[in-house]
TrEMBL record:
Residues 316-385 form the 4Fe-4S ferredoxin-type domain. It comes from Streptomyces caatingaensis. GO terms for biological process: lactate metabolic process. The lineage of its organism: Bacteria, Bacillati, Actinomycetota, Actinomycetes, Kitasatosporales. Residues 74-286 form the LUD domain. GO terms for molecular function: 4 iron, 4 sulfur cluster binding; metal ion binding. Keywords: 4Fe-4S, Electron transport, Iron, Iron-sulfur, Metal-binding, Repeat, Transport. This is (4Fe-4S) protein. The keyword Transport applies. SUPFAM superfamilies: 4Fe-4S ferredoxins (SSF54862), NagB/RpiA/CoA transferase-like (SSF100950). InterPro entries: 4Fe4S_Fe-S-bd, 4Fe4S_Fe_S_CS, FTHF_cligase-like_sf, Helical_ferredxn, LUD_dom, LutB/LldF, LutB_C, NagB/RpiA_transferase-like.
Length: 491
C-alpha cells in the first residue's frame, strides 16, 4: 500500500472549500503558476520538433512498460556488476524497512536527502525518525517545508505556497532546531534567504556519511542512475557521503542512453523552462576513490504493477514529474496542492494517487473529480499522458465499480455508496431519454413551471448548487421550436 493518508485528510471538495477562501494563497499561486507556464511556453517554442520529441517520449515509455520485467532484470544485472546492491520493495512499508536497516548498518543517526517524490510517497522521513534517525532535506524548497512542519504543495516548487516573509520567519524561528541558526538580521531578499540555507546546509554536507536520493531516470543498458536538479545540493549528496541509498519507482527505467537523450530535452524545458538542467548527475555503481563506497538501489512497486495492468490508466506511468500540468490547471491554481492530500498534487496526482493507493477512502474517490476536464494538462504534457481520459476512466470506476487489479490479483471494486443517488438519477434520465414521449412531456411541464425554478437544489443536490447556478428553463424546448418554425413533427 502507498504511504498513509495524513490523519484527518478530508475529501478534495472539503479541503478545496477551505483553501479557495485563502486570498493570499490564491494570489501567490496565480502569480507563480502563470510566470512558470509563460517561461515554459517560450522555452518549448524554441524547438521545431517538440511534437515529434513528445511522441517519441510517449512511444519509448509505452514500449518500456510493455517489457518492464525484462528491463528491470537487465538494470539489476548492470547495477550489481558495477558494484551496487539492488533491493526490491513491494510497498511503502517494505521500502522503509529496507532503507532503515541499511542506515542502521552504518551506525549513523542522520542522513542527507536529495529531493525525492518517491520517499515522500512512502513516508520515509517519519519511518527513519521512529528508528532514531534524523533525515535532513537539502533542496531549498524541501528545507522550507521541513523546517515549517509543512507538506509539499507542488512537484517542482514544494514551498510554492509560502511567501518570502513567511520563509524568513521559518528560517529565523526553526533553523537552530535543525543545525546552524539563521544569520542575525536576516531579510526576506531571495539572495539572503538562499545564503542562509547554504550556510545551514554546508556543515551537513561536509559531515554526513549517508545520503538518500531518488532518481529521474535509470538506464538499463549500463545500470546508470540520473538526477537532474538546479541547486547543486544533489551533486553534494551524491558524491560526498560514504553510503548512497536510492529509492526509485520501477517505472523510471529507460532501456538505453539513446532513449534518455529524448527525456533530457523534454524535462528541463517542461519543468524549469531551461534548455538544460544546471546539474545533471549520473552514477553507475561504485568506483574506488570516487564517490560513495557503497551504493544501494531500492526499486519500489507500491501499486505500480497494479496500474500497469490497467489498459487505460497505465499511461500515467509515463510521467516524468515535470509539473507542467499543475501550472496550467485552473483547479490547482485555485485550490493549491495540499487539497490533494498526496505528494502528487494537481492533475497528475488526481490520476496517479487513486491508482497507487486504490479508492479505499473518500479522498481517493474524490480525486478523479478534481478537474474541469478542460484538457490543458494533456496539451502541455511532454509525454502525452491523456489525463482527461484517465480521469473519466477513474470516475466510471468510482461511480459504477468494476474490475481492477489490487496487489496483483483481479478484484471487483464496489461502487462508492455516496454515489447511489447519483446513479439512480442517471438511470432515471437514461430511461426518460429512451422514451421521446416522456422526454417531450417533461420538457413542456418544466417550461410551464419555469417561474418556480429554485435557486438552489434541496437535500443532496445542495452541494451541486453551492458552486453552480441552475440553468434557466426555456419557454420552449428545441424540439417544439423546430416543429413550429420548420413545420416538422415534434417527436
Amino acid at each position: 500500500m502507498s504511504g498513509p493518508v495524513p490523519l484527518g485528510m478530508p475529501a478534495f471538495p472539503d479541503a478545496a472549500a477551505v483553501s479557495t477562501r485563502d486570498a493570499r494563497l490564491r494570489a501567490t499561486l496565480r502569480h507563480a503558476t502563470r510566470t512558470i507556464r509563460a517561461k515554459r511556453g517560450a522555452a518549448v517554442a524554441e524547438l521545431d520538433d517538440w511534437r515529434q520529441l513528445r511522441a517519441a517520449a510517449a512511444a519509448v515509455k509505452d514500449r518500456t512498460l510493455r517489457h518492464l520485467d525484462h528491463h528491470l532484470v537487465r538494470l539489476e544485472e548492470r547495477v550489481t556488476a558495477a558494484g551496487g546492491t539492488v533491493h526490491w520493495a513491494a510497498d511503502a512499508d517494505e521500502a522503509n524497512r529496507i532503507v532503515t536497516a541499511l542506515v542502521r548498518e552504518t551506525g549513523e543517526r542522520e542522513v542527507l536527502k536529495v529531493k525525492s517524490m518517491t520517499t515522500q510517497e512512502t513516508g520515509l522521513n517519519a519511518a527513519l525518525a521512529e528508528a532514531g534517525v534524523r533525515a535532513y532535506e537539502t533542496d531549498l524548497a524541501e528545507l522550507i517545508v521541513q523546517l515549517g512542519d509543512d507538506l509539499p504543495s507542488h512537484l517542482l516548487v514544494p514551498a510554492i505556497h509560502r511567501g518570502r516573509s513567511e520563509i524568513r520567519g521559518i528560517f529565523r524561528d526553526r533553523m537552530a532546531d535543525w543545525g546552524r541558526p539563521a544569520p542575525a538580521g536576516l531579510t526576506d531578499r531571495p539572495a539572503d534567504l538562499a545564503e542562509a540555507a547554504r550556510l545551514h546546509l554546508r556543515e551537513k554536507f561536509l559531515r554526513a556519511r549517508v545520503a538518500v536520493s531518488g532518481a529521474n531516470f535509470m538506464v538499463a543498458e549500463t545500470g546508470t542512475l540520473v538526477v537532474v536538479e538546479s541547486e547543486g545540493n544533489g551533486r553534494m549528496c551524491l558524491t560526498l557521503p560514504e553510503t548512497l541509498i536510492s529509492v526509485v519507482g520501477i517505472e523510471k527505467v529507460v532501456p538505453t542512453w539513446r532513449d534518455l537523450e529524448v527525456y533530457l530535452q523534454l524535462l528541463p524545458r517542461s519543468s524549469t523552462a531551461e534548455r538544460m538542467n544546471p546539474y545533471t548527475s549520473m552514477w553507475t555503481g561504485t568506483t574506488d576513490g570516487d564517490g560513495p563506497r557503497a551504493f544501494h538501489l531500492v526499486l519500489l512497486d507500491n501499486g505500480r504493477t497494479d496500474t500497469l495492468a490497467d489498459a487505460v490508466g497505465r499511461q500515467v506511468l509515463r510521467c516524468i514529474r515535470c509539473s507542467a500540468c499543475l501550472n496550467v490547471c485552473p483547479v490547482y491554481e485555485r485550490a493549491g496542492g495540499h487539497a490533494y492530500g498526496s505528494p502528487y498534487p494537481g492533475p497528475i496526482g488526481a490520476v496517479l494517487t487513486p491508482q497507487l493507493r486504490g479508492t479505499a477512502s473518500a479522498l481517493e474517490e474524490s480525486l478523479p473529480f478534481a478537474s474541469s476536464l478542460c484538457g490543458a494538462c494533456y496539451e502541455v504534457c511532454p509525454v502525452a499522458i491523456d489525463i482527461p481520459e484517465v480521469l473519466l476512466h477513474l470516475r466510471e470506476r468510482v461511480a459504477e465499480g468494476g474490475e481492477a487489479t489490487v496487489r496483483g490479483v483481479r478484484a471487483v471494486v464496489r461502487p462508492a455508496r455516496r454515489h447511489a443517488l447519483e446513479r439512480g438519477l442517471m438511470a432515471a434520465a437514461g430511461l426518460t431519454l429512451q422514451h421521446p414521449g416522456a422526454l417531450r412531456s417533461g420538457q413542456r411541464l418544466a417550461a410551464r413551471l419555469r417561474r418556480l425554478r429554485p435557486r438552489r437544489l434541496p437535500g443532496p443536490g445542495r452541494a451541486w448548487t453551492d458552486s453552480r447556478d441552475l440553468p434557466e428553463v426555456p419557454e420552449e424546448s428545441f424540439r417544439d421550436w423546430w416543429a413550429r418554425t420548420r413545420g416538422g413533427a415534434s417527436s
